[in-house]
Design a protein that fits this description.
Radius of gyration: 26 Å
Organism: Brassica napus (Rape)
Domain eRF1/Pelota-like N-terminal: 61-190
CATH superfamily of the largest domain: eRF1 domain 2
CATH class of the largest domain: Alpha Beta
Shape: flat
Subcellular location: Cytoplasm; Nucleus
Strand order of the largest sheet: 5-6-11-7-8-9-10
GO biological process, one term: nuclear-transcribed mRNA catabolic process, no-go decay
Largest sheet: 7 strands, antiparallel
Protein name: Protein pelota homolog
Strand content: 25-35%
CATH architecture of the largest domain: 2-Layer Sandwich
Number of helices: 11
CATH topology of the largest domain: Nucleotidyltransferase, domain 5
């Protein structure tokens, strides 16, 4: 543990990862007394001895300041800590909102002799949002709109594109903070919502590494090798090529899998490829003394899938040993809800429906027990359409049902999107829904 421990009311100790600060309570009389653990937004009391403990904090959106009323106007100042946070911000920011942040802009200046010169200056602008773009690969939000903040360099009404990056504070102002916006804000700053997994999807000659976050599934590496047949004279070439392939996957694993961030690492494949690579990984880790792998080998689990392609990520999330690792997360609950829907659709199709029209009719009849909907539907540029879906979610909850909002950038959200992005489990059968055009 980094930092200095001296008993006293002003003691502060920073954890080894620099995420948490332990603050000894004023009433402390010895090192075992209660201390306050301040981590991000959470402040709680615990009898953990910081010198003997590691931080298991989840990195979540940092909410610096809130100033709004429910279903009324207001603002929030926040800092995105990871790509999932940027995705939440993307879903929070709507056309007509305003965003204020520090930015850079090239401005023209007069120089002696009557000429003009351009200079890139740092300044604070607030734009009224006209367009929002999320760049997953660059981990940046681009927000285009007209400047509404008085500034010497930029006129009011001039167009500007703000780039919101990780660790860069920004202020979001909304005319109405509806229930969906408040739920999104809550999820963004909730450590329990985290479900970070590293997944190595494999089959002979193909290896892919994915990071599955709270809301975003991103591809980090793809390794392809042509593997010769393992029969006859080619057997020697097969073994050497397979070993080289495993070595390339191992290098990608070391580069992209951070056990201080992910809950577990999953190696998945058809057949025995996963078992062979797992053996190679552990043997090489011991030989090279790769401490992160050696110390976390119990958090590396194996899963059978039908292929090494991206669509098999759904099989990984459904695996019991993976579900057990993420069972307390929002993602696990969504995966279970989606599985329950597909099971019901197969076994009792009159108690499951999908498509906006069918779900709307089922709700009018008070039949919706569980609503599944993707966040893509809320990003509709038509305010009435967005409000319709917000009201639907609220109404389902008010009538005693559950509502799950799936990220369209997550594996489960991608599956739901193939079913129009909205589906429902019903309290009672509605066989006549099939007669209604979708």
């Amino acid at each position: 543990m980094d930092g200095v421990w001296r008993l006293g009311k002003s003691t502060r100790v920073v954890c080894g990862w620099g995420l948490c600060r332990w603050v000894v309570c004023e009433a402390a009389t010895n090192e075992r007394d209660f201390v306050e653990i301040e981590c991000g937004l959470s402040l709680r009391t615990s009898n953990i001895d910081p010198r003997r403990s590691r931080c298991n904090s989840e990195i979540t959106m940092k909410i610096v300041r809130r100033d709004f009323v429910r279903n009324g106007p207001g603002s929030v100042k926040m800092v995105a800590e990871d790509s999932d946070d940027l995705w939440y911000a993307y879903n929070l920011i709507a056309v007509g909102d305003s965003v204020m942040a520090v930015t850079f802009r090239k401005v023209q200046r007069e120089v002696p002799g009557g000429g003009r010169d351009s200079e890139r200056v740092r300044l604070k602008l607030e734009v009224q949002v006209e367009e929002v773009d999320y760049d997953k690969d660059a981990a940046v939000l681009r927000i285009r709109g007209k400047n509404i903040l008085e500034n010497d360099q930029v006129k009011i009404g001039a167009f500007h594109t703000l780039e919101i990056e990780l660790k860069r504070p920004f202020v979001l102002r909304k005319g109405i903070w509806d229930s969906l916006a408040l739920d999104t804000l809550k999820q963004a700053s909730d450590p329990a919502a985290s479900a970070d997994l590293a997944v190595v999807l494999m089959q002979e000659g193909l290896g892919q590494i994915f990071l599955v976050g709270r809301s975003v599934t991103s591809s980090r590496a793809r390794i392809e090798t042509s593997i010769p047949r393992k029969h006859g004279p080619a057997i020697a070439g097969y073994e050497s090529t397979l070993k080289k392939f495993f070595e390339n996957v191992l290098q990608a694993f070391v580069k992209h899998v951070d056990f201080s961030v992910v809950r577990c690492a999953v190696i998945a494949s058809p057949g025995f490829t996963k078992d062979q690579f797992h053996r190679h990984l552990l043997l090489e880790a011991e030989r090279r003394q790769l401490r992160p792998i050696i110390e976390n080998k119990s958090r590396i689990i194996l899963v059978h899938t039908n292929s090494g392609y991206r669509h098999s990520l759904g099989e990984v999330l459904n695996a019991p040993n993976v579900m057990n690792m993420i069972k307390d997360t929002k993602a696990a609950k969504e995966v279970k809800a989606l599985n329950d829907f597909f099971t019901m659709l197969s076994n009792d199709p009159a108690r499951a429906c999908y498509g906006p029209k069918h779900v709307e009719v089922a709700h009018e009849r008070m039949a919706v027990q569980t609503l599944l909907i993707t966040d893509e539907l809320f990003r509709n540029s038509d305010v009435k359409t967005r409000k319709k879906y917000v009201d639907l979610v609220e109404s389902v909850k008010d009538s005693g049902g559950e509502a799950f909002i799936f990220s369209s950038m997550h594996v489960s959200g991608e599956q739901l999107a193939q079913l129009t992005g909205i589906a429902a489990l019903l309290r009672f059968p509605l066989p006549d829904l099939e007669d209604i055009e979708m």
